Amino acid sequence: MSRLRSDFWVSAYLRRCGVEGVEAALRKRGASEAGAIFVKVDRLDGTASLYGPAPQLFLDDSGERRFSPVLQDVMPLDVEERMTREIRFDPDLWLVEVDDRDGRHFLDLATEE
After folding, report:
1. Sorted alphabetically, which Pfam families does this protein's record hold (predicted)?
2. Are 6 and 31 within 8 A, CB to CB?
3. Are the C-beta atoms of residues 39 and 9 closer than 8 Å to each other?
């Protein structure tokens, strides 16, 4: 099964956040069809987390996007520095920023089963 295009996934994700009453914004538009997607969650208390694409090891045949934590409960500047490096490596990636005091991200996280 093929995976949903990145632009469609991001659009649906932003809509989902809005429905949940959570502020989310597209910070960087990437490649429409297959750009990697990163999500920064700012808890608005001086901490943030970053989620990125799960390693291929955790992907199944469903075509669902899975995410894994890249940075957890760090200063927002740490996330910005990491994303600067990621963008240098992959200029076609997407970056979505979510502002939520509870740290909700609404992502499917990869888990070892």
Report:
1. DUF1491
2. yes
3. no
- Domain map of the chain by residue range? 6-99
pLDDT in tens, 17-64: 999 999 999 999 999 988 999 999 999 999 999 999 988 655 555 667
Q: Which two structure tokens, joined as six digits, stand for 72?
A: 């957890």
Which 3 state secondary structure label does DSSP give 93? coil
Q: Does residue 12 sit in helix, strand or coil?
A: helix
Contact 95, 82 (CB under 8 A): no
Q: Determine the topology of domain 6-99 in CATH.
A: hypothetical protein tt1805 (3.40.1530)
The Cα–Cα gap between 101 and 87 comes to: 26
Q: Which of 72, 69, 71, 67 is nearest to 107 (CA)?
A: 67
Q: How high does pLDDT run on average in the chain?
A: 90
CA-to-CA distance for 22 and 88, rounded, in angstroms? 29
